[in-house]
Specification:
This protein is 22% helix and 28% strand. By secondary structure, it is an alpha/beta fold.
Amino acid sequence: MPAALGIFLTKVLAALMAFISVAVNPFAASRQLPAAPDDFKPVLRFAVASDVHIQVDDQTDDSQPERIRLAQFINKAYELAESSNTGYNKLDAICFAGDMANQGLDEEAEIYINICKANLRPGTQLLNVLGNHDQFKGADTALTRFEKIFDAPLNYNVVINGFHLIGVSYSTQKDYKADGVKTWLDTQIKEAVAEDKTKPVFVFQHPHPFATVYGSVNWGDFTTATVYNKYSQVVVFSGHSHYPMNDPRSLWQGSYTSIGTASLSYFEMEKDMFAGQFPDGYEQAAQFRLVEVDAQGNTRVRSFDLITDSFFGLDYYLTDFNKKSKFAYTSRNMMKLDKNPAFAAGAAVDASVNDEGKVCLDFPAAQDNFIVHDYKVTVTNRFGLPVWSGSVMSHYYLINYGDAEHLCLDEFTPKAGSYKVTVRAQNAYGGVSRAITGELTVG
């Protein structure tokens, strides 16, 4: 895809998300992002992950990365709870937003639940919902089979320390329409909100509600979004897309709050759009959310990376759930707070051809208020005519990747001659940097 078209599509998508934010929340004012106070004291703590894709294949022992990451996720959540300086050190729940099993096999589900049981401790509830992969084998019986294996309902409404946690699984038709699931969900949320309109209601499902978080356009669900739009108190966690949490668009506020949960297996990016569906290092995916809630319902959401054993990205602080006009994380507000990315003065591109014949570019990474999402690259010949143009994903999703980028251009084999390479950085909201350049000589 030409670089100019990639920029245009990103701007269109960002504008669409901002328009939706305004349409569903027209009175939201511009504001700085809130922060949890120093004396923030939770009364509820839970961890959320999704898309571990336990599978049965040639690698059937415990060395399978996904099995290791699942156990690490649970144990790290305990470690973070126990080391908290908030005065509250309990882990109340582990919540999983679907795709526990890769092919929907009973054996995969049994491996998943056995890992969970081996690492869970008394006092922590395990809450699961079904995803699409969990129904690949026998969709018509998946719910009953997995409920038996997990010994727990997969549509649930549990109350922990005064807060509702509601899970909704795909029906037998791989959506939320059959068997009265949508009506059940609406009723559960309505009753929870009626108890206290100021408190958040936490909901867990597999696909993102459509047109909310990063990834929800390609991987979103329309059905539940029509329910959530009625309740500003909803905070829904979802996976399915495998899109990384590093992107600020992974948390969205409009008429309610939507939060992406990434993956414990592998990353995906824009599908059939630009920058590559499976970019460099996509297997290094092991992200989860740690959620803490105080007695008034104020909610802190932090993102943790198991690969680097570190928190990363934004610390989100959600308040005023019954006053959506005060929501800070709308697409419109986030776009206003972001600025165009920038390269350091004097930055330039070092272009060369590697041993595999690929053109590779090395340059200092651009900086942005949030992330540099991708780089727009144009190669012109000695007459100034473009011979290649496209978007290449930055390495923002790999924590601690470093301050220098190394990008290789696929599907471009230059002929002998001299070329000029132009690179511009683009952020999550379509902001584009000034260009940096370099020369490429092919013998």
